[in-house]
Amino acid sequence: MADHKKKESSRLTLGAMAAAGVGAVMGLRALRREKPSFHGRTVLVTGGSRGLGLEMARLFVAEGANVVLCAREQVELSRAKDELEASGGEVLAIPCDVTDRVQVEALVARVHEHFGPVDVLVNNAGTVQVGPLESMDERDFSEAMDLHFWAPLYTTLAVLPEMKQRGWGRIVNISSIGGRISVPHMLPYSASKFALVGLSDGLRAELAQDGILVTTVCPGLMRTGSPPNVVVKGDHEAEYAWFITSDSLPGLSMNSERAARKIIESCRRGDAEALLGLPAKVATLVRTLAPNLTAAVLAQITRLMPQDGNTERHWGFESETPLTRSWVTQLTRWAAQRNNELLH
């Protein structure tokens, strides 16, 4: 009886080892399949002339991809293109307002003529409005929705037919922790990023059957250098001060080059979601487990923030004070210099 039990135990052990071995082999094969090289692929990055878009473009170029940048500002596009070409990249820079569907379709047609069909689409173009609800108007919400919802939808619809025909494609939608938790004094931004998360998650479910993998990226604060180009309302100097200071703190914000690497690896694997930075991960978890507590904390934070309802618009670079020019914001100012963010 004891011998029979030992033999049975041995069979079970051997079976478990065999199953583990088969699982490991299958897992390795799956990883190989899901981690393609971007060498020779055509990658379209919207909002690619500066900030996070430029950081990602540098990495795609380093890997040998054909990179297409689009943005509204020709001067910024030209500077970004010159930099990337100097590093040996194959780069096409096309001025385009991605909130205009006609311009988007013309953009994709030009890319096809120059490089062929788009293999990887990165919807990165964005805008930020900072200020209390009382200072915001319909224009603020409309602009945020146009750029964070409609623009990604237009670009996605434009590249989908050829991705479906080939049975392969990657789409990366850069949302935000503001698309998981509504950040005080950034309501148009958060509302539109929530909309992008919903769109992106839905696209993932719809397109997986066609071999197209959609990744939703939700970073926390990143040191891209973008604060000088945000729209600030209400007590614009005070609002800009808290925004750029938060953006500059190493424990709270993430280095944009590191963020870009993580995004590209998530795209390579075809991940469903990428939450970037410990604060973003913790905040998302707390919001899920304790929504009432999260709402109470956010309400208390809002009470401590500037309450001026002035609706006049200012750019970040127009809202500088001695504090925002001090050593406290040095990391953000270095990032602005690196990432083509110095001039609006």
Automatic annotation (TrEMBL):
Name recorded for this polypeptide:
Ketoacyl reductase
Keywords on record: Membrane, Oxidoreductase, Transmembrane, Transmembrane helix
Q: Which family does it belong to?
A: Belongs to the short-chain dehydrogenases/reductases (SDR) family.
Where is each Ketoreductase domain found? 41-225
GO CC terms, sorted: membrane
**Entry GO MF terms:** oxidoreductase activity
Q: Which SMART domains match?
A: PKS_KR
Membrane-spanning parts: 12-31
